[in-house]
Amino acid sequence: MSQFDSVSFLKTVPHKPGIYQMFNDKDTVIYVGKAKDLNNRLKSYFNSSKKTIKTDRLVSHIHRVEFTITNTETEALLLEQTYIKKYQPRYNVLLKDDKSYPFIKLSKERHPQLSLYRGAVNRKKDEFFGPYPSGYAVKQILALLQKTFPIRQCLNSTYRNRTRPCLQYQIKRCLGPCVPGLVSDEDYNEQVNYVRLFLSGQSDEILKKITADMLKASSELNFEKAAALRDQLQAIKHINEKQAIYNNNDNLDVIGFHYELGLACIYVLFIRNGQTFGHRSYFPKVPSNTELEEVIETFLGQFYLQGNQNRNIPKKILLNFSLSDKQAMEETLSIVAEHQVKLVDEPKGDNLKLLNIATVNAQTEVKNKLLENSTIKQRYDALKAFLGIKKINRMECFDISHFMGKNTIASCVVFDDKGPVKSEFRRYNISGITPGDDYAAMEQVLTRRYSKKDLPEDKIPDIIFIDGGKGQLNQALQVFEKLQVNWDKHHPILIGVAKGAERKEGLETLFFEAHGKGYYLDDHSPALLLIQQIRNASHDHAIVGQRKKGVKQLTDSALEHIEGVGGKRRQALLKHFGGLRELKNASIDEIAQVQGISKSLAEKIYLNLQQ
C-alpha cells in the first residue's frame, strides 16, 4: 500500500470547523471525526511526537482523507453523528442501539385504550407517554395501571365485537365499556384523567383530584364509589413510596460510566418528575487504546443525536466524567432538544446520590460481563485444546428446519472469539428440492454461502459445524470438494454434530469424517457446552424463521385469493390490525377505515374471512 502523503494533503486543509473521513486502500471509511479547527486536528494525527497507539494503527491504514467544512462546531457534531451511523467505521466508538424505544399510547376515542406502542408518534391522533427504556418496563407499568385504574387495554377489534364483559371486568381490572350500561362515559373518562395525570408524573395533582372526588361521592351518599376511590388513593400512595427516590420533580438522565480491562459500560438512569422511569446498560464497541473522553463524547452524540426523533432529551444530564469540550456538546443538545440542556459533572445533594447509584451499577455491570467473558474464554480454550488448534476467530453453524417438508429454512449463525455475532446471523429460503430432503437443503445453503471464489479473510471461518450426523457431514464435504474457493491459507475444520439418544443434550456425537464412530466429550466439558450453545443458536434461528414463513404463508393465502387485494393492500390490512386474527374479528366498517379499502371491498374481505 502506498504511503499517504500527509504533508501535501495538510496544505489543502483550512483552519475552519468541519468533519473528516478517513479511508483505507479498499475505499472503506475507517474513521469519522469532527474538529473546531480541521487543520490543527488532522495535523495531530501525523505528528509523530503526540501519536497514541490507536492513532498510530489508524494512520497506518489511511489511504486518503476527505473533509467537509461547516459553519459551526455544532453543525460538525451533528454531521459527524450522521456519518458514524451511516458508515459504522472500524476505529470509531460504536453504540449498538438500533432498537426503537417504546411508548405508552392512550388513544383518542370515546373509550380510550392503553397500549404499548413503537414507531413514529403522531400526537394529533393519540396521546403518548415516554419513551421508555425497554418494552419490559412498559409492560410492567401497564400491568400496574391495570390493577389501579380499570380502563381497557384490549384490542379495538375485541372491544367492538363483545356482547358481554370479559374476565378483566369480573376481576375489577376494567370498567367494561364494551358492553352498554356497565359504566357511564363520565365515570370512564374520570379514570382516564387519573391515568393521564399518573403517566405525566403529576403525583400531587392526582392525589388531590382523587381526594376531592372521594369526598364528593361521600357527600352524595355514593359510598360504594367513595370506597373504591379510597382504595385507589392508597394504591397510588403505595406506588409513589416505592418509586420515588428523588425529592424534586426534575427530569434527568443520570449517566454512570466505568471502563475496565477493555470493556466499557454506560449505565443510564432515567428520572422523570422525581420518579424512576427505568434504566438501561450500554456496552459500546471501543477500539483498543481509545481515550476515555472519546468514549463518553461519542456515546452522548450517538445516544441523543443519531436521528432518534422520539428520544426525549431532558434539561439536565448528570455525568461522572468531565468533558473538555462540554460547551459544544451542550449547545448541540440544546438545539436538537429545542430547550437548554446542561451537562452536570459535579452534582450535589440528591443529584450526587443518583449519580453514585448509576456509577455503582456501571461498575457492577462491567464486573459481571468480565466474569461472563472469562467463562466464554474458558470454553474457547477447551475447544481449541480438543481440536489442537491455536486460535478460533470465527465459527459458523448450519441447521435445516421445515414443517412436514414445507417452508424449508436453513440457518447460519456466526460466533467470534467473544460469542455470538447476531448481526451476521442469516436465514436462507430453500426452494427447488424434494420436500423434506435435508441433504439437498444443506447442499443448497452451503453452495450459496461459500460459492464466492475469494472470500475476505476475516469472513472465512476456522470451524464449520453441521447440525446432523455422518450423512449431513458427507453432504457438506462433497459441496466443498466442488467449490472453487480460494482458501489456500485457511482451511476450516468441518464438524458434524449428531444429537444424542432422545435428543438429550450431553450425548452428542462429533464427526470429523463421513465414516467411523465419531467422538464424544464429557457432558460437563466446556468445549461441549460451547458446541451446544452454537448448535442451539442455529437450531432456534432456523425454527423461528420457519415459523415466521409458515405464518406469513398462511396469512397471505387467506388474503391473496380475494379479488382486488394485492400485495400492498394485504400489507396495509395486516399492519393496521396487527395480524390475521384481529382482521378476522374486525367489522366491515373497521376494515373500510384502512387506506385504499373501499366499503364494497371491505365487505368482500369480511365475507371471505368469515367462511
Automatic annotation (TrEMBL):
Function text: The UvrABC repair system catalyzes the recognition and processing of DNA lesions. UvrC both incises the 5' and 3' sides of the lesion. The N-terminal half is responsible for the 3' incision and the C-terminal half is responsible for the 5' incision.
Q: What is this protein called?
A: UvrABC system protein C
Q: Which protein family is named in the record?
A: Belongs to the UvrC family.
Query: Record keywords: 4Fe-4S included?
Result: no
Q: Which UniProt keywords apply?
A: Cytoplasm, DNA damage, DNA excision, DNA repair, Excision nuclease, SOS response
Assembly description: Interacts with UvrB in an incision complex.
For this protein, the record's Pfam families field holds: GIY-YIG (PF01541), HHH_5 (PF14520), UVR (PF02151), UvrC_RNaseH (PF22920), UvrC_RNaseH_dom (PF08459)
